[in-house]
Write a structure and sequence with these properties.
- The protein is an alpha/beta fold.
- It has one domain: Nucleotidyltransferase, domain 5 (2-Layer Sandwich).
- The chain contains four helices and five strands.
- A five-stranded mixed sheet has the order 3-2-1-4-5, with helices on both faces.
- The chain is globular, with a radius of gyration of 14 Å.
Length: 133
């Protein structure tokens, strides 16, 4: 099964693709998403480009694992994404993925633009795939 992962943000969204066969993920884009319409347009384009069977969205849980307002808002967005795309949408804990993305970038060289959002999406997807049977 092929997945498209999203690291949602208030201004931009990181995008990654991967599959459950290789259990690997690759960052592919950072798209400007200042509002929900922009998000849905960008996701539609990424679906056309990459042909996923499902979406994985990073869930902004509190450090103690509970859901606050951001997680509840993300769940609502996930429901609208499922309706808009017709694809299953899975949530994945995204705690500390942005820090992990910055660390991964630091290991590979200087920051190049906004790649950390796409790398965070890849980390979210890798963690999701690692938990699959």
């Amino acid at each position: 099964m092929r997945y498209l992962a999203l690291d949602l943000g208030t201004k931009r969204t990181g995008v990654a693709v991967g599959d459950d066969e290789t259990r690997s993920a690759m960052p592919v884009a950072v798209v400007d998403t200042p509002d929900e319409h922009s998000l849905f347009t960008a996701v539609t384009k990424q679906i056309e480009d990459h042909g996923p069977d499902a979406l994985v969205v990073g869930m902004p849980l509190n450090m103690d694992g509970t859901e606050g307002k951001p997680a509840k808002a993300t769940r609502e967005t996930m429901e609208r994404l499922a309706q808009h795309t017709g694809l299953p949408v899975h949530g994945q804990d995204e705690r500390l993925t942005s820090d992990a993305a910055r660390h991964r970038l630091a290991e590979t060289g200087p920051l190049r633009g906004r790649r950390d959002d796409a790398i965070a999406a890849a980390i979210i997807l890798e963690e999701f795939l690692g938990g699959q049977p």
